[in-house]
Recover the amino acids of this structure.
């Protein structure tokens, strides 16, 4: 099953195994990656599942929908060109090894 | 309260009335009975199916094509009975109609919008604590859980100062009306005319101050997102669902923190836990206890066959304490990972005002914990009875300044 490498704000990596079809947020909360808060449970409402996608992976992710784009304007940590909401990233075998950096804060 | 198996469908029939005063007074033993009887139960008193375990409540909430909202999210089936008021364009709607109105309210109540009101909400919370520190002994419902949202939410909406006393009674009617035709519902609707008249008037564009949530909804008419007849009804959704819910949410949090002094101490030592403390109170007390759905087709749910056009009652509160999902569910624990609780619902109808609720909860609990050492319950708490909302009518407390 595809793995995600979460890199904490302090640089520490955390490898997390996902199940196919699960979102990156779901995998993170299942493994208690505390920096993913996910207050709205993946309903694209809260922007507390914010991640910075490693540049080398950016092009391989599906484009974001308008609501994700609008929500990212409200993230607690600064929005960057590689900002995404992890609840909107569905894991597939093509994303095995995906590197996601965690922001310093979510609220 | 007994459980008896029924032949045929295999769904256990229960004679529990979840809208009875004795149920409201202490719902927990009945919640357990409902959960343990089976994944799907049938309630003979009102001829509805019920789900009380987390997995089934979550499944129903997340399959809106099968379990629809447009036939009403109360007991009354809009296909068979005229609704008591024009239906909500968001709560009582299905996709694609829901998708459009939902996008409008999501935008008006977005994280970006919250950044704009945050400082104001926080300053008002500090002012409330100033007043409470002067009082020392007060009613934590009237003087805190009600007074705080009343000091900010109507202004944030852009309501006129006159007539605001109708707001909480109006919400009381709305949430009672989701219930069955019991006394609570009948009396609420009989007395609703003046509150309805006030709300209808306040939803008009001319009566909403510029910059507020109400005016922002009307501005969406100019963008072509909604029509000018839809806008007032969407404002009405905020008037119905935006005040009494947070009153009960903040009331729940204060009641929890007063009953669990170790958790209050934790919060005082680390104020960043305030948001989690509020969220955990929403899970623990579930201010919104129940909602219904109606089946659009015959469906099998966890082995139970349910026909088309059946009402299904979701026990959000019971799901939020299901031991299958939660470790020590009856413990109020402010550092718990609460993500996934259904106190705000789940799926496409999940509370569109959740960020407003969390913001109010967070800034109020932060202000309290920073300046108050101890909250003691010094009188008998009194319950307020409503067919959908759970909360107190009065909670006498005494505080010790930090
Ligand atoms: C602690 C406070 C609150 C609780 C517990 C709560 C709970 C809920 C729940 C359980 C639902 C789902 C209904 C369903 O699935 O049928 C919901 C929906 C909704 N809530 Fe809240 N709510 C709260 C605060 C608010 C606030 C502050 C607002 C407005 C500013 C609001 C506006 C709404 C609206 C308009 C909907 C309908 C959304 C839709 O159908 O898409 N709520 N709420
Ligand atoms: S979990 Fe709320 S937006 Fe992703």
């Amino acid at each position: 099953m595809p793995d995600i490498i979460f890199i904490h704000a302090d640089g520490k990596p955390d490898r997390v195994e996902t199940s196919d079809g699960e979102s990156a947020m779901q995998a993170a909360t299942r493994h208690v990656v505390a920096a993913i808060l996910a207050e709205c449970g993946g309903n694209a409402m809260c922007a507390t599942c914010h991640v910075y996608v490693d540049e080398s992976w950016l092009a391989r992710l599906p484009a974001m929908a308008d609501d994700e784009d609008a929500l990212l304007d409200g993230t607690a940590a600064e929005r960057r060109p590689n900002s995404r909401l992890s609840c909107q990233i569905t894991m597939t075998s093509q994303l095995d090894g995906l590197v996601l950096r965690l922001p310093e804060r979510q609220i | 309260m007994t459980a008896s198996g029924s032949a045929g469908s295999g769904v256990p029939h229960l004679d529990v009335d979840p809208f009875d005063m004795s149920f409201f007074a202490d719902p927990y033993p009945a919640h357990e009975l409902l959960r343990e009887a089976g994944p799907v139960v049938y309630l003979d008193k009102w001829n509805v199916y019920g789900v009380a375990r987390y997995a089934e409540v979550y499944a129903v909430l997340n399959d809106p094509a099968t379990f629809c909202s447009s036939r009403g999210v109360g007991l009354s089936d809009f296909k068979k009975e005229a609704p008591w008021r024009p239906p909500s364009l968001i709560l009582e709607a299905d996709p694609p109609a829901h998708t459009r109105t939902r996008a409008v309210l999501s935008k008006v109540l977005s994280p970006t919008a919250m950044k704009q009101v945050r400082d104001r909400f926080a300053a008002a919370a500090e002012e409330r604590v100033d007043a409470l520190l002067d009082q020392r002994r007060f009613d934590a419902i009237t003087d805190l859980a009600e007074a705080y949202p009343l000091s900010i939410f109507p202004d944030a909406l852009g309501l006129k100062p006159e007539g605001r006393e109708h707001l909480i009674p109006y919400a009381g009617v709305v949430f009672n009306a989701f219930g069955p035709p019991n006394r609570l519902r009948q009396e609420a609707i009989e007395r609703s005319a003046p509150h309805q008249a006030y709300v209808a008037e306040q939803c008009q564009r001319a009566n909403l101050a510029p910059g507020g949530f109400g005016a922002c909804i009307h501005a969406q008419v100019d963008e072509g997102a909604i029509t000018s007849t839809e806008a007032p009804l969407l404002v009405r959704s905020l008037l119905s669902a935006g005040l009494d819910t947070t009153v009960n949410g903040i009331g729940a949090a204060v009641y929890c923190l007063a009953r669990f002094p170790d958790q209050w101490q934790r919060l005082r030592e680390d104020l960043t836990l305030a948001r989690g403390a509020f969220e955990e109170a929403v899970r623990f007390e579930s201010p919104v206890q129940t909602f219904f759905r109606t089946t659009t087709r015959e469906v099998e749910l966890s082995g139970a066959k349910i026909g088309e056009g059946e009402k299904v009652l979701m026990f959000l509160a019971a799901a939020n304490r299901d031991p299958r999902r939660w470790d020590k569910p009856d413990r109020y624990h402010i550092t718990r990972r609460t993500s996934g609780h259904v106190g705000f619902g789940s799926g496409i109808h999940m509370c569109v005002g959740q960020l407003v609720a969390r913001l109010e909860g967070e800034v109020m609990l932060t202000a309290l914990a920073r300046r108050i050492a101890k909250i003691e319950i010094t009188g008998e708490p009194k319950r307020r009875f409503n067919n959908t909302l759970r909360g107190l009518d009065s909670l006498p407390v005494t505080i010790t300044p930090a």
Summary: Chain A has one domain: 3-101. Residues 16 and 31 of chain A are 7 Å apart (CA to CA).
